[in-house]
Amino acid sequence: MRVRLRDLAESLGLSVMAVSKALHDAPDIGAATKERVRAEAEKRGYWPNQAARSLRSKRSGLIGLLVPDLASPESSGIAGEILKSAENAGISVMVGMPGEKKGGEAAQVKAMMGRGSEAIFILPKISTEHRSLALEAVTQAGLPVIFFQRYPADVGPGRARVSWVMRDMGQAAQLALDHLWKLGHRKVTYLGGHPAERSHAEHWRAVREGARQRGMEMEGEPIMAGLRPEDGEREMEKILEKKSKPTAVICGNDEVAAGVARAILAAGSKIPEDLGVIGLGDGELAKHGPVPLTTIGFSNLGKAGFELWMTIREGGEMKPRVVGCELIDRGSTGKPGE
Predict the structure, then answer these.
(1) Which of 95, 173, 247, 297 is the S-S candidate for 336 at Cβ 3.0 to 4.6 Å?
(2) Least confident of 61-65, 111-115, 321-325
(3) Would you call 136 helix, strand, or coil by DSSP?
(4) Which residues contact 42 (CB under 8 A, 6 or more apart)?
C-alpha cells in the first residue's frame, strides 16, 4: 500500500505541514528534523504524489520529447541534454519515437498530452518538415511546443505558443571558410547533408556565397550526399577519380566527413597533406573517427530548448533561439601541399 504524507507525519509525531516542508527543504524547518523526515521517508518508500501536486499548482512537472531515432547522433545529443537539464530542474521527461506508421508523431504527442505533459519538444523527421500533424495536435490543446533544428514550413514568428531552436548555419559556413582561406586553400568541394532539410540548404548557400566573396573556387557542383558516413565515402570516391581535385572538402555533418576521410585514406592519400577535411557538429565521429576532424561545434540544442521553455514557463517571451558555434581545429585541415 502506498505510503502517504499523513502516514509519515503520524509515525514521526509531526504535522503534515511540517513533514511537507521538511521534504521540500523549507528554511523554517531545522536540519535535524529534515534529516529525521528524510530517513523515515526513505525507510518506508515514500515518494511525492505528483498528480495531486500538479492539480494544486497547475504544473505537472512533466514534458514530452519526440525524436525520430534515439540511435542517431542528432537525436541522442538533444535528448541527452534535455534529460540532464530536466533532472537538474526536477522535471520528468517522457520520450517517444514515432516509428514509420503514418500519423505516428501525432499519436505519440497525444499520448504525452494525455499523461499531463506541460510542453512538447519535437525534433521532426526530415520527411515531415513541411507539415506536422503533431503540431496541429499540440496547438489544439494550447500547449507550448518547441522544435529543434527544423520546423514546419507554415510556422512563423508570432504563431501562438510555438517556437524553435536552430543552429546558426551561416556562421558555421563563415568559420569554415575563414579557416581554410587562412591556411591557403583556394579550391574546395562541398558535400552536404540531406537535400530536403532547410538547415542543410542554408549551410550550402552560405558556403557558396562565402567562397564567392573570398575568390575561392568551388570544385564541381554541390553534392547533397546524405547523413551517413557511407554517403560521404561513396561521393568522395567519385571525386577522387576526377583529374581536377579540390584541396579541401567542407562537409554538412561529421558523419559525412568521417566517410570522406575513410575514402581518402583508402585511396592511399593523406589527411591533411593531400586533402583537408572539415566537418560540422563536433560529434563522436569528429573525435574518434578515422582521423580526428577539424569541425564546427555548436552549443547544445537540447539545453538551449529547455532553457527557452523554462523562460516561457515563468511568463517569458516565446522567442526563437539561434545557437552559435566555434571552430575546433584537430589538424585535418593543414596548408595545401605540405
Answers:
(1) 247
(2) 111-115
(3) helix
(4) none
Task: Give φ, ψ of 162 to 5 degrees.
Answer: -125, 135
Cβ-proximal residues to 294 (8 Å cutoff; 6+ apart), any chain: 179, 276, 277, 278, 279, 327, 328, 329, 330, 331, 332, 333
The C-alpha cell at 107 is: 499519436
Predicted structure pTM score = 0.75
Q: What is the CATH number of the domain that holds 267?
A: 3.40.50.2300
State how beta strands 162-167 and 321-323 pair: parallel
Q: Which amino acid is at 144?
A: P
For helices 16-23 and 5-12, what crossing angle results, to 10°?
Answer: 110
State the pLDDT at residue 251: 94
Chain segment 244-272, per-residue pLDDT in tens: 889 999 999 999 999 999 999 999 999 99
The amino acid sitting at 215 is G
Q: Identify whether the C-beta of residue 326 lies closer than 8 Å to the C-beta of residue 175.
A: yes
Q: What is the DSSP letter of 58?
A: S
Cβ burial, residue 171 (10 Å; 0-12/13-18/19+): middle
Rounded distance between C-alpha atoms, residue 332 and residue 316, angstroms: 43
Q: Is 338 a domain residue?
A: no
pLDDT (0 to 100) of residue 194? 73
Which residues form the domain of 156? 60-166+300-321
